[in-house]
Design a protein that fits this description.
Layout: H1 3-27, H2 29-42
Length: 56
């Protein structure tokens, strides 16, 4: 198998895995909850106390 075929196969595999991961995170309730909890840890909401968690 040539080098270009190996590289393109690796890229295609990566894209399929990435699409599957995004589909799981957006398409399921548990995946969406994981995304929202992760975002809540990094975003500072106005008026929130330090250490206060909205979704936890």
């Amino acid at each position: 198998m040539s080098l270009w075929k190996k590289i393109s196969l690796g890229i295609m595999l990566f894209l399929v895995l990435l699409l599957g991961t995004v589909g799981f995170l957006v398409g399921t309730t548990s995946g969406l909850h994981l995304v929202l909890k992760a975002a809540d840890r990094w975003v500072t909401w106005p008026g929130d106390r330090q250490g206060h968690r909205r979704l936890a």
